[in-house]
Design a protein that fits this description.
The relative contact order is 0.15. By secondary structure, the chain is mainly alpha-helical. The protein has 14 helices and six strands. The longest helix is centred in the N-terminal third of the chain and has 29 residues. The protein is globular and about 75 Å long.
């Protein structure tokens, strides 16, 4: 909104109005506003939820300090979503297709999570929204994202033009002042299913390679494979974030770390100078997403003001499903989805711990007539709780691991 105000008043003499043309300034403003919304209005939302007695029903898992959490307000994801959406609308260019996609993702998954929390709290149904409806919602969102990336003319990547032999086409440019010559590659903006992959030359992978056997049909079949990959990523990361939301501050803090990393990647990918210097894929108009992810980071950190141990409010599925989905869709849009297993390694470990536990229990029950466990309890953060490690220490250590994974994710761009 303020960007368009700048365009309207650009010819005026209003001091400072020109700042709104810069992504860096609008991102900084989005961070500050999202923090204020989460911290100031968050307190009022907590009070409203307490007055309406919207508290979490805690299952007795035999964990230390668990009984004290009974009645803690839930549905705190409302705070996070508000602190993301409002600054984004105010400071981002909302005609940008990528911003539209992220706003739709945030609100849509937030509504699915809110429905689940509503059924649990108001209908007193501990199961909440049936899992199949959550999955269907995530599949629908995946199809919507894939269709937008395929159909929108604004979604392109800039690639070097190739000759008949597959070599980059270049021209020799002579500097008229110094007389020096340099090689300049000819580029074009194209629709593509190309993405970033670490540890290989060029750091790029095209989904069409998976359907190269199909011949001419690969030109459209690659988009089918791409859509399936997007649906899988959204479903996996969104549900993994939901599983991680089991102890105070864990999901919010981990999401903030991942958000900062994705923000850096989005900024350099959308800046033609930095992307060329770092030799990474340049995506036109993607830099605007820096404003969104700035609001996302501010919202998650601001939420920690009340969600850190001991939590005054839980995010509920309203927040956890939305956070995971945002990270998944954002990574797809900036063509970094293959880095998700590394960047969101905490979510991955939490997810795998549940899969391992359930699979081993069922197998041993079938084989020996008695189910056996790999962990004391899953997800794995409960395993450490059972070992007697304080909740706050578990959260802090997971954050540290998340920071290490974030740094490793950025480093992989130069390891090839």
């Amino acid at each position: 909104m303020f960007y368009y105000l700048y365009e309207l008043l650009n010819d005026s003499n209003i001091t400072g109005i020109g700042m709104f043309q810069y992504i860096s300034f609008r991102s900084g403003a989005a961070v500050i506003l999202s923090l204020l919304i989460a911290m100031v209005f968050g307190k009022k939302i907590i009070q409203i939820l307490q007055n309406k007695q919207i508290g979490e029903e805690i299952r007795d898992l035999g964990l230390e300090g668990q009984s004290q959490k009974k009645g803690t307000p839930t549905m705190g994801g409302i705070i996070i979503i508000s602190a993301i959406v409002i600054p984004t609308i105010l400071f981002a260019r909302i005609d940008n297709v990528y911003i539209i996609l992220m706003l739709v993702t945030t609100i849509f998954l937030g509504l699915i999570g809110f429905t689940d929390d509503y059924i649990k709290v108001y209908k007193k149904n501990k199961k909440g929204l049936a899992g199949r409806f959550k999955i269907l919602g995530q599949i629908f969102l995946g199809l919507f994202v894939a269709a937008t990336l395929f159909l929108s003319n604004d979604v392109v990547v800039r690639q070097n033009v190739k000759d008949a032999n597959g070599n980059d086409v270049s021209v020799v440019v002579t500097n008229s002042v110094t007389g020096t010559q340099s090689i300049q590659y000819i580029t074009e903006d194209v629709k593509s299913t190309i993405t970033t992959i670490p540890f290989v030359k060029g750091n790029e992978f095209d989904y069409k390679l998976l359907v190269a056997f199909a011949g001419n049909a690969s030109s459209w079949l690659k988009w089918v494979v791409y859509a399936v990959a997007i649906i899988f990523i959204i479903t996996a990361v969104s549900n993994a974030a939901n599983l991680t939301d089991g102890i105070d501050g864990l999901t919010a803090g981990t999401s903030a770390i991942s958000g900062i990393t994705l923000g850096i990647l989005a900024y350099v990918s959308g800046n033609i100078i930095y992307s060329d210097y770092l030799n990474i894929m340049y995506i036109p108009n993607i830099g605007e997403l820096t404003v969104f992810i700035a609001a996302f980071t501010g919202a998650t950190i601001g939420f920690l003001w009340y969600n850190s141990y001991p939590a005054q409010i839980f995010m509920g599925d309203t927040g956890s499903l939305a956070l995971g989905g945002i990270l998944a869709v954002f990574s797809v849009i900036i063509r970094k989805e293959i880095l998700i297993p590394l960047l969101c390694g905490i979510f991955l470990i939490e997810n795998f711990s549940v899969i391992i536990q359930v699979t081993w229990f069922k197998y041993t029950k079938w084989k020996y007539g008695e189910g056996r466990r790999v962990f004391f309890m899953s997800p794995i953060h409960h395993h450490y709780q059972k070992k007697g490690i304080p909740e706050s220490k578990i959260t802090t250590r997971f954050w540290i691991v998340g920071i290490i994974l974030a740094v490793a994710t950025i480093v992989t761009l130069k390891v090839r």
